[in-house]
Every structure is written in structure tokens, then in C-alpha cells.
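Regression test case RT-17, inverse folding.

Input:
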């Protein structure tokens, strides 16, 4: 199978289509209709075999996740996902792998109403680079640099599950089969918090998605906003699978330092907490308040019962070059 047959077979037919795509897959470039009252938000992520996934990762999960990690970035900006472009580098044409991969990618495109509009295919070590585009009403984009002293710090979902799954794969932890299935699902098929991000446009002062670990990613908000934070580690939202599999301090470390959660961390001013609670009353899973922003630039204080908590692992989050 040649390059153009590959594109036609796996990435052209039976994919969702949007009315704002004037020209999609099949030409030199895509042509899109961008609303005049919106701003365009763009995010790009790369996944490399042997770094972000290995041969035991199902191809369907790889297809889902390469889209999900980008859509999570859009969620953190309050954007509505619209278009995706994919650069796919393959060592060879494996039709079974490509069928499963494209199925996983198409599923998430259908769920979030995204259209694949183009990209590139090349031969080489298995590498995937996806660019996601989204729209946000003009002037309503969420950013990292808006947190102020006194704002409350929230996170969505539960933290640390994907990290526990990875630790099990690397034979660093051993847990029950039922809990392993639960956390493996979180690692392989993360759910970008698109609806939450859009609901936060008018109430959050800052936001970020948790890709490298809460401690590290919250640090980006603190640096950009030139503020500090106090976090109560007892308030961190932990799943039953995590708390029943490891001791309390280990669970907290997973929640603080593990990557691949793809939840949202955000801040809400005291003056908007009432509005926030009203908005979240319609949300299926209300985010958890874990602390408060302080006026000590870039200082992140971890507390338990009001006292400093000293149990943090030296590894504070994933860093490709750390």
C-alpha cells in the first residue's frame, strides 16, 4: 500500500465532517471558515513510540490519546474543538495497526465534533504529531497568568490514576486486577474536560491542563501569574483504585507528580465562587477545591492539617530533558 492509498483508506472515508470546513483532506492544504466573533486556539503535541507509549499499548488507545492530549490543551483555554491535522511517521504500513489506530482517532473526533482536515505521512520511527484547532468567543480565552492572591485552587476529576497504571506496567507497583483495569483505562483513554473548560470562561481567573503532574503544572500558573499557593494534600481527589492500592503518602505523591491525568487545574476569585457553584451545579462531577493562591511568588506550600507536609518525592513532574 502506497502513501496516498494509506491516506484514502484510513483517513478519508466515514470521518465526521463540519460545515465550517470548505476544503479538507485531499488537497495541498485545508480551507476553513473562521467566525469573525471568535479567536482561533491552536495546540500541538507529539507522541513517540518508546517514550509516550510502547508495543503493548493498543493502537486504538494511541489514536484516542494523541487527540485527547491536544483537546485537553484546548479545554484549558476554554475553547470548542473544531479541526485536527495529523503528521504520521510509520516504520512500515501495518494495516491492522492502522485500522485500530484510525478507529480510536475517529471515535474521539465524532464525540467532540472535530474534523480531520489534513496532515502528512512519512516513513521512519513510529511518531505521531497532531495539531488541534479550537474556537473561543473573542476576549474569553482562559490563560495561565490571571491568578491573584486569595483565589481558590480547584482540580477536576481524580489525580494519580494514570501514574499508578504506568508504575504497574513498569513493575514498580502491584495491584488487584480490577483496580488495574480502572487505572489503565485512565492512562489509555483520558477524557479531555471540554465542557468544563467552556463553563469556566466567565468564572476562572487562570487554568491549565494536568499533563506533567499537578505540582509541576500548577507551578506554571504560579510562575506566569507571579503568585504562590497553599495546597492541602488531604483535599486532593483520589480514586478508590489508588487509595486501596498504595499507602496514603504514596497516593499523595502519585496525585502530585504523575503525568497523564489530563484533568484541569484552575483558580476562581472569591467574588465569583457563588457564580462558580451555580455553574457547577449543572456539571456532572463538581471539581474539588484543594487550596488557595498566596502573594508569595512561585512558592508552592504543601500542607496537612495546617502544617507543612514534607513527604513529596524528589521527582516533581515529567520533564523530557530533566
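Golden output:
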Amino acid at each position: 500500500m502506497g502513501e496516498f492509498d494509506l491516506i484514502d483508506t484510513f483517513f478519508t472515508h466515514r470521518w465526521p465532517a463540519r460545515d465550517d470546513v470548505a476544503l479538507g483532506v485531499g488537497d495541498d492544504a485545508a480551507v476553513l471558515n473562521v467566525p469573525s466573533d471568535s479567536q482561533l486556539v491552536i495546540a500541538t503535541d507529539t507522541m513517540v513510540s518508546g517514550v509516550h507509549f510502547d508495543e503493548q499499548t493498543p493502537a486504538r488507545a494511541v489514536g484516542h490519546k494523541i487527540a485527547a492530549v491536544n483537546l485537553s490543551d484546548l479545554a484549558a483555554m476554554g475553547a470548542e474543538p473544531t479541526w485536527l491535522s495529523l503528521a504520521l511517521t510509520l516504520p512500515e504500513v501495518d494495516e491492522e495497526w492502522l485500522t485500530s489506530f484510525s478507529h480510536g482517532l475517529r471515535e474521539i473526533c465524532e464525540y467532540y465534533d472535530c474534523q480531520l482536515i489534513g496532515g502528512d505521512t512519512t516513513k521512519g520511527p513510529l511518531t505521531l504529531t497532531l495539531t488541534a484547532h479550537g474556537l473561543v468567543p473573542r476576549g474569553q480565552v482562559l490563560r495561565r497568568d490571571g491568578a491573584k492572591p486569595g483565589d481558590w485552587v480547584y482540580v477536576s476529576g481524580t489525580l494519580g490514576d494514570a501514574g499508578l497504571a504506568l508504575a504497574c506496567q513498569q513493575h514498580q507497583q502491584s495491584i488487584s486486577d480490577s483496580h488495574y483495569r480502572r487505572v489503565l483505562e485512565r492512562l489509555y483513554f483520558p477524557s479531555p474536560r471540554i465542557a468544563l473548560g467552556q463553563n469556566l470562561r466567565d468564572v476562572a481567573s487562570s487554568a491549565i491542563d494536568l499533563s506533567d503532574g499537578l505540582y509541576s503544572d500548577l507551578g506554571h500558573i504560579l510562575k506566569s501569574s507571579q503568585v504562590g499557593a497553599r495546597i492541602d494534600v488531604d483535599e486532593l481527589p483520589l480514586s478508590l483504585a489508588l487509595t486501596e492500592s498504595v499507602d496514603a503518602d504514596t497516593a499523595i505523591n502519585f496525585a502530585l507528580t504523575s503525568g497523564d491525568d489530563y484533568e484541569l487545574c484552575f483558580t476562581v476569585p472569591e467574588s465569583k465562587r457563588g457564580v462558580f457553584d451555580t455553574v457547577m451545579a449543572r456539571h456532572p462531577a463538581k471539581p474539588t477545591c484543594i487550596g488557595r493562591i498566596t502573594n508569595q511568588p512561585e512558592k508552592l506550600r504543601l500542607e496537612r492539617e495546617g502544617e507543612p507536609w514534607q513527604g513529596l518525592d524528589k521527582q516533581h513532574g515529567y520533564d523530557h530533558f530533566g
